[in-house]
Amino acid sequence: MSSEFSLIDRIRARIALRPDVVLGIGDDAAIVQVPPGHELVIATDILNVGVHFPAETAPADIGWKALAVNLSDLAAMGAMPAWCTLSLSLPDGDPDWLDAFIEGFLDLALPADITLVGGDTTRGPLSVGVTACGLVPAGSALRRDGARVGDDVWVSGTLGDAALGLRDVLQGRATDPGLRARLDRPEPRLALGHALRGVANACIDVSDGVLQDLGHVCAASGVGASLDPDALPAGAGVAAIQDPDERAALQSSGDDYELCFTSDPARRERILAEARAVRTPVTRVGTINAGAGVQCLRDGVPVDLPQRGFDHFGHLN
Ligand code: ADP
Ligand code: MG
Q1: Helix (H) or strand (E) holding 286
Q2: Is the Cβ atom of 28 under 6 angstroms away from ligand 1?
Q3: Of all protein residues, whose CA lies closest to atom 1 belonging to ligand 1?
Q4: How far apart are CA 34 and CA 40, in angstroms?
Q5: pLDDT tens for residues 176-187?
Q6: Ligand 1: which atom is nearest the Cα of residue 27?
Q7: Per-residue pLDDT reduced to its tens digit, 236-283
């Protein structure tokens, strides 16, 4: 067990500062320089053991995921990552655990060019909170409230891989390493989010399931959406599931960290070109309409999916 201060020193020793950090870890607060003409975009997410990751998760993977879920929020806003803080509640001050955690955190922080500038360290049940700050040219952020009637609905990558990996973990089965990586080391779609500025009308990251998250876009924009569950992009593991309802339920249960966005149909070619340029596949899955809420249509017939996403204060509903 180490003292709070030696743990903080262990973290500080690993951090290389971006040039726009005026003052990093060590004072009462950090100081950073926001470039002229830019807006600061701020996202925060907590990960709790047993709720957001299984207790057996490797500390390096917890470090990666704690940052990844926040970078996914910045991606959904079209923001470039810049600075972050880290609030750690640790059951025991195990320096080996902390070193591994920081290793995984930096595996993502370094390529994303985000600097850890502060945080808090306390004893308690294992819980990790990250606040990530990003930058956008003023007025250019992607928001949930811009979807327009007639827009296409798109999603990036594939959906359902993390949920399938988690199902294996919870049922004590060996997990395919690719699925486990999708669960433990989601890749925030930063380059795509950036490329979609000025092209997409609305954007959200798929953390709670595509139906629920698209529902948030609809509510914020005052529109409805229809979605074809069979059009949802699937990786090999999910695609191999025969029952279309089971497949669609997995694909709408969350933890995907893909982007769901809407755009004018006149921009289809542009969207595909931008996506190709950042080597991120995108798939058209539905349409924005003048109604309210998200309706699933299979061959034009409304279908009800058995599961509609994750709600921490409800249940898997
Ligand atoms: P204070 O008493 O002012 O809250 P702390 O002792 O909590 O200060 O923190 C000292 C310094 O270490 C601060 O700059 C704080 O931001 C930083 N810090 C504390 N915990 C972490 C952490 N988990 N990750 C990064 N920086 C941290
Ligand atoms: Mg403190």
Answers
A1: strand 282-289
A2: yes
A3: 28
A4: 7
A5: 999 999 999 999
A6: 14
A7: 999 999 999 999 999 999 999 999 999 999 999 999 999 999 999 999
